[in-house]
Amino acid sequence: xxxxxxxxxxxxxxxxxxxxxxxxxxxxxxxxxxxxxxxxxxxxxxxxxxxxxxxxxxxxxxxxxxxxxxxxxxxxxxxxxxxxxxxxxxxxxxxxxxxxxxxxxxxxxxxxxxxxxxxxxxxxxxxxxxxxxxxxxxxxxxxxxxxxxxxxxxxxxxxxxxxxxxxxxxxxxxxx
Length: 176
Fold this sequence. Notes:
Blueprint: E1 2-3, E2 6-7, E3 19-23, E4 29-33, H1 46-54, H2 61-66, H3 73-78, H4 82-95, H5 103-126, H6 131-139, H7 161-172
Antiparallel strand pairs: 1-2, 3-4
């Protein structure tokens, strides 16, 4: 990623190039990794936030990305594949959810798990062209304001109505 002609280096924690500028708490801006969630030091301008991110030491990034002993739980979780998630969902059918002694509750539990498996399989074969998959994906994107944890303005925003415009001003460089 580039910001005003400056390369933003890969994540210093996991090595991912999927990074972005984010307004943490107005007026502070940081660079954030979309893969592992790590953030760089916050600063008041995008330029200085990028410089602070780029200054982070990266000697351990390849080790962190490849060696499970050096990964956080979040990093390990984000490294799971779609097929891992599907396999876990299928494993839940055998698990029983603690309802083995009550056949009625076990049937309801299995029905719910089968619904999840069906949705994942449809996502794997048809993606968002499957309308149920698209609807479930949209419903699953609950967003909270990064500044105050109130419900976000909409599913595409990281801020509530009150903080959205201030965050956008900071990112545009329009803040005082």
